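We close this part of the discussion by returning to an individual protein. In the encoding step, the backbone of a single protein was reduced to a row of integers, each denoting a local shape. The sequence in question and its structure tokens are set out directly beneath this paragraph.
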Amino acid sequence: MCLHGFPELNYSWREQMPLLAAKGYRVWAPNQRGYGASSRPGGVDAYRADRLVADAAALFDASGGDEAHPDRARLGRGRSRGCSRSTAPARSSGWW
């Protein structure tokens, strides 16, 4: 799961996704809440890190995936794109 940051969209991963798929990863890049055509909950509290992590966890669970691999890699045009460990639930090994 490729997650974008502020102020980007899922489109930011367009060059990296084919590379990851070619390496055998199942990969997708959802828009995070409040971006693109996603829902826009009201209030700052709706965008706290724990809420965003819960969104990612729900998407991962809905995907039917059983394993996630946190990774830092140089992809695309040599720009460092990557993952970071976060406040992900203990049942997961991390998030893209």
Summary: The radius of gyration is 13 Å. Residues 32 and 81 are 17 Å apart (CA to CA).
